[in-house]
Amino acid sequence: MTAVPALSDAPAIRLIRPTTALIPAYLDILAEMHGGPLDGSGIHGEATAPRTEEEACALIAEQRAAEEPGTVLPEGLVPCSFRWIVPAGTGPEDDQVTEGRHADPAADEPGATVTAPPNSPVLGFLAIRHVLNRYLFDLGGHIGYSVRPSQRRRGVARAALLQGLAESAALGIDPVLVTCAEDNVGSRGVLESAGGAYEEARGGVRRYWFGAGPRPTGPTA
Fold it and tell me: Which of 18, 45, 58, 111 has the highest CB neighbour count under 10 A?
């Protein structure tokens, strides 16, 4: 695995769409996270994780399509914006900025592809689910995220969550539900430090709401 440089106490990170420009870094983070949680990655079980560039390309294409209007998704899935957490210096190509977001292609554009050397690290994953089905309302929430072990406890998760919340607001999602396991002290600290309003615990899962909109009383999908 590639050695990932340590970040400062206030990490400069950004969210980007999955991109084939960073496949080596993508496979590297999956190797480091093998056997651990992959929340926000869109990978459902270790057995489905890509292990080759061909498999990675196929999954990236699926994930990029998952947020596009008109995409027919498998039963049980909802429209979702998949994002990779990368250092802020990993920048977008000027001609591939997602329409309707930042007008300045040099801005920290969460919807852009990137131009970066193959060894640029992917620090983690974040997914924004646009609506809540029964499972997501009860357990999963709108946003899921995970950070590679070598970059945990450095502020990466909180910084990514704050950017994910901003993108959720731009998508019109208000309020945003984010959950964590009752015994996950680290995630609990992230959610509370980011301003989450604790609702209750259900089935061992703590529920936090972000935003001022009316809280749904059931699934929204």
Answer: 18
